[in-house]
């Protein structure tokens, strides 16, 4: 691994940093000064009831779009920036350092790469520009009540009826569905086929009759994900992506874009720096227990060291990609360490304040760590559970036998 920027990489880093410094709206600068960021900030802002919030979201989308940086990993011919893996790493690192939100959500990260590989020319022309401009936000309809980690067990049915598919079933944990304009989903089109086959990938507007979105409120009283129900939802066959009954392979498609999770490492380090700054302040000193306990000071140091370890995991992944190698168990190691590190940081943050951490609504860093701890519970479940990641590391990384 080479930790030093080349002259070209240093120049690109300066370009990214300069653009963020000049164009990031004040709304996002103010949020970055807070202790913790939110989920899907840009996507929720673009559908806000407040005009100034919507304006900030679209200003930021326009700033990124001018350079193709809404989708830095997409090829240039489709409106992306076509950045190399290392350039993507630098871009994501600088975005995370500034606390700047990404734009496009699942449309940029999942649907766009899938359409680029499997979509028809008409589908690419219809959907890719609207993803890049921020005109259309997408939600992902994959998980079901009985098909989470075992996604191929999904049961939502799509039956061919002339030029339409008729869809019935339910999805769950549909992140951002209440703020999305459209949905892409995996549905079962051949119930008699083996479970990884007989699945198709279909797109549909959220306004399609028969789609119902029901909010799921988490235990921190946040509305981030939803249940989505389909009752005789008719979707044109032309909205099928790829071949019928081959949707599993379509849905697993991703372009070779940066998967190092450098944003997680940088974001965690920023959070700890802000916490340490607060603990050094007069207010923080009065409300914390750090001055009373060497153990707490040691715990805080452990968490900071872990962010440095996480950075090295991230740099290992990106170094492999930059060398033309495909990370496998290395990406699982990074994901496992990052999600559990985030939970430890949130818990350590609450310990710094003792009983003061039980305050939920006081609006200070004290309560923000309490809310972060509650919100961090799903981190080791979503995106592939810690148990699944450990199995991948054991079998593919260490060569241990199954069973």
Q: What is the N-to-C order of secondary-structure elements (H for helix, E for strand)?
A: HHHHHHHEEEEEEEEHHHHHHH
Spatially, the strands of the biggest sheet line up as 1-4-5-8
Q: Please indicate the count of domains.
A: 3
Separation, N- and C-terminal Cα atoms: 35 Å
Low-confidence stretches: none
CATH superfamily of the largest domain: Butyryl-CoA Dehydrogenase, subunit A, domain 3
Query: From the helix content, strand content and strand pairing, which structural class follows?
Result: alpha+beta
Number of helices: 14
| Helix amount | 40-55%
Describe the 3D structure.
The chain is an alpha+beta fold and 403 residues long. It has three domains: 7-103, Butyryl-Coa Dehydrogenase, subunit A, domain 1 (Orthogonal Bundle); 138-251, Butyryl-CoA Dehydrogenase, subunit A, domain 2, CATH 2.40.110; 262-397, Butyryl-CoA Dehydrogenase, subunit A, domain 3, CATH 1.20.140. It contains 14 helices and eight strands. The protein has helices at residues 7-23, 26-33, 41-46, 51-65, 85-98, 105-118, 121-133, 247-251, 262-280, 282-287, 294-322, 329-351, 365-375, 386-397; strands spanning 138-141, 157-161, 164-172, 182-188, 199-205, 211-217, 223-236, 240-241. The strands form two sheets. The chain has a four-stranded mixed sheet. Strands 2-3-7-6 form a four-stranded antiparallel sheet, with no helix packed on it. A hairpin with a 2-residue loop joins strand 2 (157-161) and strand 3 (164-172). The longest helix is centred in the last third of the chain and has 29 residues, at 294-322. The radius of gyration is 22 Å and the shape is globular.
